[in-house]
Amino acid sequence: MFLIADLVLVTIFAALGRNAHEQSPWGALETAWPFLVGALVGWVLTRAHRRPAALFPTGVVVWLSAEIIGMLLRMLTGQGTALAFVLVSLGVLGLFLLGYRLIVLLVGRSLRNR
Q1: 56: left (phi over 0), alpha (psi -120 to 50) or beta
Q2: How far apart are CA 13 and CA 53, in angstroms?
Q3: pTM of the model
């Protein structure tokens, strides 16, 4: 379930970005694929299936892999990597990929402390 959430959130990030630049959000996969590849690499590197909800290392590595590998793939394929885009994607992907894991962690702790 966490893998699907990560992939959906990366795709939503791409769709929101395309919409903000008055491009059709329907082409989100065109924008998202480098970040999706990066996120999948992060899953493999951390063996995320063992602890998919973990903020660290799973969430942090998936986030940074999505960003770094995503930007490298964008550079290799001639897509934009302007500093503003790098900073925005770093922030939004961090918020998305770490944010829901933090919520899961806090809700789990709250339920255990009842």
Answers
A1: beta
A2: 20
A3: 0.92
